[in-house]
């Protein structure tokens, strides 16, 4: 399914459900479509220069035949579409399950299946007063179930429901029914009856990361909170890649798919594009599929070869890291050409030794912020490597971010103690 508005829930900082990654790794606007020009990837170039060209891959390549490769691949049937734009949400599912009586697929999840009567009661017949978001796939409503649980209902547009969107709907419920992690959306159930397609997920009231980077809610997101969010997202993707029975590639990691709790902790949402990754023990190296994702976040190697791997999520995460520290959207069509592709612009400044110039101007250029910025951009550069073999895995990204966050907190605490001591001395001298 696709993605309209925002939702969130309380966070226990020390638990992530029975299948969480270790803590020490610890709907509104979507960005508009933008232009991207074509160049051939050249792995022989200087790594920094190559990384600076990561997004300049033509979407025309998406419709060319995939390159032949001798490595093993898992071939999946996937609708030929590129890009998506909207927002979505949810988190961990409850331990409630009912076997679907009219399932047409053997692998359809047996999670709670809602009735139309329950949905109509919860939304007051889809009252406009309950509407909280709108996206390319449909509408999101805030509702309350009979047991008092507040949820978000993502309702597909009937006029656009077709085979391709049906694949996304099935993908989302298949994925949500399997995941359970502190930093992933909670799944409560779904409805598939006649021309109605609805996913019921946790309601997250604090909006999306993109909204907060845009200061839609009025407050500036400080760097400490941004580090928490980046680390949470890294945990979530690490769980999908490494800690499930069958690894999952999210395929649409972006700021409008990251929902924030009231405590500004992250929950990754929207699994309409998610795909099962090949098992590492199988010898299969990638999934061969048509390209899907969002402009600005797409892995150029995936664009060129149709070969989807977990490193494609790593690439998108690299773009997200740049977005978090700069505050800019991945593609800014109104800026001059050399600044239009945010990650390219930021990596060029970083390689030129001018990192501080890319820091979100709403953040203070303190010593702590500057040091953290340098290390985050260094990690982003690794994630944005043109060739997937050169990118770290998500577990490594989570470990690096956890260390950056730890050092940032210690540095801030040290400055706070130093300031407190100086103030006490000044007060003592005045006395």
Can you offer a commentary on this structure?
- With 431 residues, this protein is of the alpha+beta class.
- It has a domain at 27-82 and 206-412: Transferase(Phosphotransferase) domain 1 (Transferase(Phosphotransferase), domain 1), CATH 1.10.510.
- It contains eleven helices and twelve strands.
- It has helices at 47-51, 116-123, 163-176, 209-213, 223-242, 300-305, 310-326, 337-340, 342-351, 367-383, 394-430, and strands spanning 73-75, 131-134, 138-144, 150-156, 187-193, 196-202, 248-249, 258-260, 266-268, 275-276, 286-288, 307-308.
- The strands form four sheets. The protein has a five-stranded antiparallel sheet with strand order 2-3-4-6-5, with helices on both faces.
- Strand 2 and strand 3 form a beta hairpin.
- Helix 5 (223-242) runs antiparallel to helix 11, helix 7 runs antiparallel to helix 10 (367-383) and helix 10 packs antiparallel against helix 11 (394-430).
- The longest helix has 37 residues, at 394-430.
- The radius of gyration is 22 Å and the shape is globular.
- The model is unreliable at 1-45 and 51-106 (pLDDT under 50).
